[in-house]
Amino acid sequence: MKIIDHLNRYVSDVDKFIDFYKNALDYALIDIGTKSDGKRYAILKGDGHELFISERDLFSIETVKNFRHIGYHVDDVDGWLDTLKSKGYAHESQEIIVKPFSKQFYLKDPDGFEIDFIQWTDKQGFYRYLRDKNITCQ
């Protein structure tokens, strides 16, 4: 099985994203600079992957997206939500969504991109459920 090594995306403001990913999600800043085209970039290290961010001319948040969100597996979704609330990144009214096989919540980054924090309560049960529905991907 292949694992994701890194994500690379454009952002509106590198400094805003460094602050968000370091303080909200515990990433480490491992590089920052200016590319040959004059645009700023940074590389942040997460748990087993890196996030490359860079600014670009005429950046805008797309209103029609083909990429819905990125999901982070967490061991304690309630703890993560409490921490993000205490740091001001999540609203006090934010609640955990409880599903048959998971607990999760969604948060938006500084540019409005959705992040899913998911704690699987029964991932094997989820796989059995899919198998029993006869979903096969060949």
UniProtKB/TrEMBL annotation:
Classification via InterPro entries: Fosfomycin_Res_Enzymes, Glyas_Bleomycin-R_OHBP_Dase, Glyas_Fos-R_dOase_dom, VOC_core
CDD domains from the UniProt entry: VOC
Domain of life according to the entry: Bacteria
Annotated ranges, domain VOC: 3-120
Designated name of the protein: VOC family protein
